[in-house]
Amino acid sequence: MWFDTTAETYGEELTTYSDFAVAPGDRIAFTLSWEPSHKQPPALPEPEQSLEATEDFWREWVEHCTYHGPYREAVIRSLITLKALTYAPTGGIVAAPTTSLPEDIGGVRNWDYRYTWLRDAAITLSSLLRTGYREEARAWREWLLRAVAGDPENLQIMYGIAGERELGEAELDWLPGYEASAPVRVGNGAAHQLQLDVYGEVTEALHLAHMTGLARNDYASLLQLKLIRYLEKHWQEPDEGIWEVRGPRRHFVHSKVMAWVAVDRTIKLIESGDAEGPLEEWKQLRDDIHRDVCEKGYDKERNTFTQSYGSKELDAALLLIPQVGFLPPDDKRVIGTVEAIQRELSTSDGFILRYPTEGHGRGRRRPARRRGRVPRLLVLDGRRPGHDRPGGRGAEAVREAAGAAQRPRPAGGGVGPAPPAPGRQLPAGVQPCAAHRHGPAADGVGGVRRLTAPPRPRPARRRGADPFTQAGRVTRTRPPGTVRCMSTRRRHTPAHRHHRAARPGVARAARRPPRGRRLRGAAGAHGALGARGRGAPTSPPCSRAASCC
């Protein structure tokens, strides 16, 4: 890891510090670069050029958003977040860029979400497709085909961003965790759970890609048929469900509904003439699943669907029943389910709990990310929040709009630039930067480097190119007087500490290693400790000064 800055830095107790004042119009750059320790140091970054390339990339990307309705700025901001969760080299979409953030401060439900859940990725993909971003859909479809490798019998609910299958879970007991919420985990032991709803989410995403005009892929159609062959044999089995319950498997209603979705979308694929399969046989399968859910997953006394067969508990995932087309939104069973969830799972701050049980499941107390589900369903069945009586044109209008969104678009359609905005505008929430001012030149020591040269003219960049891959094609030279130092893998003890003698005007640099662990892949500590501009070496001068320091 390399840390570069235009500011003065100094090291104390294996930690890098920088004290500086910023006035209106001043700009101070801080950059981090990473390169495997056995390779040459990364090119010295040019912050202004990188920032400009990044802004250009995102401006151009958001221009392709085809949504022009209410709250467009909020929609674009959400789309930027979803795009930022994609890994460009493979097309994988991670559920989150973090691990071990607790569901409750001080709690132990701290999971690693830095993987590609098929369900989460499929839902993300559907949002991108509905707003005109088909290239991301194509990349994820290719990732899916590589990860599954034509073997739905061994389909996992999640994979690594490059399609890795082994995601063993471990606890890093030397780390305190966020706000002392231990343990810190890497890997995820839920990778091999059975979650039947995933088949429905994946099939729905493939179906939506097909309906929005994405180029046909025969392997994707073949995979979809294989998924239904698997469901045909296993849909009656209990599973862990959408919330990844770590306890006995159950017949979750949401899982059965999504199995119905998988069969329904595949039937539509066959009826469109883009695939071949036993149409009548699968129509019967679709009816069997529907009948099974309505008979075993519905509580007639309370007029609501339940979390699992025979249970009395509710589940926020039941709000998806009308949205996937399992039942119409004005069906009395759907209305009863919405009202029951409002009554039993709503929180005082407007969120909906995922489910209220005290079992072994993950996140029993964490609110579901479904704040908009209930208002949306009130609109679907013809109501508005605060109105009690269903009726009117609500359901019909929404069904018409949904039908229009599902109808095939002509090849090449669906991705149109938004009307040009006056002038160059940053995405919502991004503030423009003031003019750059460079600080005085100085040498850098250890893992800290001083950026001393003014920015060079920006090289030509291919339109639409990813700034992060494009940056690697720019040849840079090291400004005179700039010193760079590779990281070291040895433990930072006095016997192994490398340094340079302190002298006025020379920045000091150090990195604190993880508690109780060897420092691997982090910036090395080749600087002497002590206050800036004074002090004496505490061990012999570095023997590698000519080549390293």
Automatic annotation (TrEMBL):
> Composition bias, kind Basic and acidic residues: at what positions?
381-399
Q: Where is the composition biased (Low complexity)?
A: 400-410, 472-484, 521-537
Q: What range does the record give for the signal peptide?
A: none
Q: Which segments show compositional bias classed as Basic residues? A: 362-374, 487-502, 509-520
List each coiled-coil range: none
According to the UniProt record, where is the region Disordered?
353-549
Under SUPFAM superfamilies, the record lists: Six-hairpin glycosidases
What Pfam families would the database entry show? Glyco_hydro_15
- Give the matching Gene3D superfamilies: 1.50.10.10
What residue stretches are annotated with the GH15-like domain?
A: 69-360
The record's listing under PANTHER family reads: GLUCAN 1,4-ALPHA-GLUCOSIDASE (PTHR31616:SF0), TREHALASE (PTHR31616)
What is the name of this protein?
A: GH15-like domain-containing protein
